[in-house]
Amino acid sequence: MVKKKTCIFISGKGSNLRNLISRSRDNNFPIKISLVICNNMEAYGVNYAKKNKVPYIFVDAKKKNYENKILFNLKKHKISFICLAGYMKIISSRIIRNYKNKIINIHPSLLPKFKGLNTHLRAIKNNEKYSGCTVHYVNSKLDSGKIILQKKIKIKKNDTPLSLAKRILAEEHKLYPKAILKVFNL
Ligand code: GRF
Fold first, then answer.
1. pTM summary value
2. Of the chain's two ends, which shows fewer C-beta atoms within 10 Å, N or C?
3. What is the pLDDT of residues 123-182, one digit of tens each?
4. Going by C-beta distance under 8 Å and a sequence separation of 6 or more, which residues neighbour residue 74?
């Protein structure tokens, strides 16, 4: 199998990154993690790139050359597929145009419910019975691209945003690799 050279965008803990790096070692998994892009100098997740010898770069959304730096590095590393994993910035339309239908994201809610931030708190406050996570294509509207896969879990009576986040994150780690297999018809 010729693996797709993939870039993972992160901003924080990077548990999805760690999980995808480990899954991508499997010969039958369709992607190779060839680059990590991070917009937060303090992101713990960068350690997983370092530890696994995956090239990584930092970008600063406040800088003028922000987009150019991203596109330059994507081209330099011959990236053909992008996974957002806890990346807290909106991907610009220019990058989306360059990677049409090649960018996917994981979001911790049952989209189209609870786009954006603080999903767990909002789901609990709204007395939802269920929450979960969604992997979807990225388009120019926030958390609105075509859904690839979703996993639903029950919200417990005594759930806090933290306890719910923890259970959903464990599901994310199963869902993201599954969704990638689905994208490549595997
Ligand atoms: C995950 O809950 C993901 O769904 C959301 O941000 C979180 C990232 O977690 N977009 P991690 O950095 O992969 O641990």
1. 0.97
2. N
3. 999 999 999 999 999 999 999 999 999 999 999 999 999 999 999 999 999 999 999 999
4. 7, 35, 82, 95, 98, 99
List the 31-38 sheet strands across, edge first.
Answer: 56-58, 31-38, 4-10, 81-84, 103-107, 130-137, 147-154
Which ligand 1 atom is the nearest neighbour of the CA of 172?
4
- Residue 49 parent element (H or E): helix 46-51
Nearest CA to ligand 1 atom 14: 15
- The number of the ligand 1 atom at minimal distance from the alpha carbon of 87 is 10
Q: Best mutation site among 44, 106, 153, 168 for ligand 1, i.e. most ligand atoms within 8 A of its Cβ?
A: 106
In one-letter notation, the amino acid at residue 129 is K
> Helices 15-24 & 161-183, crossing angle to 10 degrees?
30
148 C-alpha to ligand 1 centroid (Å): 17
